[in-house]
Structures are given as structure tokens and as C-alpha cells.
Specification:
Elements: H1 8-19, H2 21-30, H3 36-52
Length: about 60
């Protein structure tokens, strides 16, 4: 992104200077540069899938005493 603001880093630094760390964090997420949001969505999808599927318990092995 070599445009009006230079690099992405320059852009994010300017956003941070103008709006603080929260604004810079939101800009990183909007640009797809911060993986926390994607990881959170993946965890939510896995949890929803686990709730919707029936989990099959393995049979207990019989052991000779």
C-alpha cells in the first residue's frame, strides 16, 4: 500500500497518533493484519459445530481381572 500515506506501517502509525491504540487496532483488523479476530471466529465455529454434532463415546475395553 504505497499510496498517499506511504506504507501500511506509516498509515497505522498516523491512525494511532490521531485516534489512539484502539483506533490503530481496529484499522489493523479492518485491513486483515491482525489475526485475533480470525482466531476468535474460528474458535466460535468449532464450538458451534461441537454443540450441533453428537459426540460418540468410545466403548470401554473389557479387561480380565
Amino acid at each position: 500500500m504505497q499510496g498517499m500515506f506511504g506504507s501500511r506501517r506509516d498509515f497505522l502509525m498516523r491512525v494511532g497518533q490521531a485516534g489512539g491504540s484502539g483506533a490503530a487496532f481496529a484499522a489493523m483488523q479492518a485491513m486483515g493484519l491482525h489475526a485475533a479476530l480470525a482466531a476468535h471466529r474460528a474458535i466460535q465455529m468449532i464450538a458451534e459445530r461441537m454443540q450441533s454434532e453428537k459426540l460418540i463415546q468410545p466403548k470401554k475395553k473389557l479387561t480380565a481381572a
